[in-house]
Amino acid sequence: MESNDLKIFKEVAENKSISKAAEQLGYVQPNVSQRIKVLENELEVSLFKRTNRGVKLTKEGEILIDYTNRILTLMNEVKDTLASEKSEKTLTIGASQTVSAGKIPQLITDFLENYSTVLIKVKTAQEQVLMKWLESGDIDGMFISGKYEPTAFQKVYTYFESIAIVSFDKNVHQSKALIVNSDLNCVYRKKLLAYAKKHNQENKKIIEFDSLEAVMQAVQNGLGISALPLSLANTRKNECFHIQQLVEGPIEIHFIVRGEHEKSKGLKTFSGFLRNET
Q1: CA 125, CA 62: separation in Å to the nearest integer?
Q2: Last residue in a domain, options 42, 57, 83
């Protein structure tokens, strides 16, 4: 029995839906169904029964969810204990692709000027996936542009990121399409769609890409317009980008950590650095 299968099982049980659990975990639905089937075959019981609204735990599933909660809690306690023993040289940070390309590289550069021995790893994924990683201790902290549960997570630092509309031509409104990240919760996607609606451009074709680099390449090729962090757009001026800063206020980006958990030395050092940033 794999711990990841228990995490998937817990997510399905909490959402009462395989498709919703897959979305939350960043998996495709068949993979989630397959892992549940593997778990059922191993335990030789049925864990869910289908309803008109999704799935519901069986009697055996109710027993397993109780043990699953205890097992995952113990695993998190082990991670916390080991995290406290980690070297000051290790730190894993999460951020969405677009957020990670804004101010974060400069923050890390400034941090390493004073703490050059720290090994930093930045993991990118959709924010709902990153939240799961943070909950389970797979990452030490994350930069987030969306909402988070203040009772579960602690805010360490906030900065503001201006947004730019980027295009190949100066005549933005003549663009062929709106180029967006495939993540429906991406704040830059939302800002671009709001901009298009405000300027009566909402009927334009929407083209989605999974990667930030693909979004930028599409704009450079004249396929359409997109919304990016202004700090990132300014670094790509030489790539035929026309940049228009949005007049609307900048977005807030928060660095959050788990609330009542032991922090690694690397995380404590990074958090202290961020708190001293102006």
Answers
A1: 31
A2: 83
Write the CATH number for 134: 3.40.190.10
Alpha-carbon torsion, ordered 158, 164, 166, 172, to 10 deg = 150
CATH number of the domain bearing residue 7? 1.10.10.10
In the DSSP assignment, the letter for residue 225 is B
Show pLDDT as tens, one digit a residue, over the chain (278 residues): 788 899 999 999 999 999 999 888 888 899 999 999 999 999 999 999 988 888 999 999 999 999 999 998 888 878 767 665 555 578 999 999 889 988 999 999 999 998 888 889 999 999 989 998 998 888 999 999 988 888 889 999 999 999 989 988 777 777 889 999 988 888 899 999 998 898 888 888 999 998 898 999 999 888 999 999 988 888 877 666 788 877 677 899 999 998 877 778 888 899 999 998 76
Q: How many domains does the chain have?
A: 3
Containing structural domain, residue 138: 86-158+252-275
3 state SS of 156? strand
